[in-house]
Amino acid sequence: QVQLVESGGGLVQPGGSLRLSCTASRSISDIYFMGWYRQTPGTERELVVAVFSDGDTNYDDSVKGRFAASRDNAKNTIFLQMNSLKPEDTAVYYCYANLRAQPYWGQGSQVVVSS
């Protein structure tokens, strides 16, 4: 099992930046697939970016060039740097880990992009 604790959400103006962090309760070096999802009311949770154990990433088209994900295995943490934020990025962001075919989620971080 793994617990995921997120931090870093908040309110930001359009064009601003935020950084989300997700720290795991165990080593993440053997967790092949981690990532960030987001969800707005009444919609399905959608994958924003997949972060693989080799450092490779795969972004949704809506965030390419604006968001940057990374992982620090030594700190058991993954990050999501969000730049040039738009109102349509407003959502609850969830950290995700797939460990031995079981899904694990962070508690969710509210991100509001508004002037």
Report what the structure shows.
There is one protein chain. This protein has 115 residues and is an all-beta fold. Helix content is 0%, strand content 53%. The protein contains no helices and 11 strands. It has strands at 4-7, 10-12, 18-24, 33-39, 46-52, 57-59, 67-72, 77-82, 91-99, 102-105, 109-113. The strands form 2 sheets. Strands 2, 4, 5, 6, 9, 10 and 11 form a 7-stranded mixed beta sheet that branches. The chain has a 4-stranded antiparallel beta sheet with strand order 1-3-8-7, with no helix packed on it. A hairpin with a 4-residue loop joins strand 7 and strand 8. The model has no long low-confidence stretch (mean pLDDT 96).
Defining traits:
115 residues, mainly beta, 4-stranded antiparallel beta sheet
Q: Give the topology string: H per helix, E per strand.
A: EEEEEEEEEEE
Mean pLDDT across the residues is 96
| Share of residues in helices | under 10%
Q: Which of globular, elongated, flat, extended, rod-shaped describes the shape?
A: globular
- As residue ranges, the low-confidence spans are none
Strand content: over 45%
Number of helices: 0
Alpha-carbon Rg, integer: 13 Å
Task: Count the beta strands.
Answer: 11
Distance between the termini: 40 Å
Major sheet characteristics: 7 strands, mixed
Class by SSE composition: mainly beta
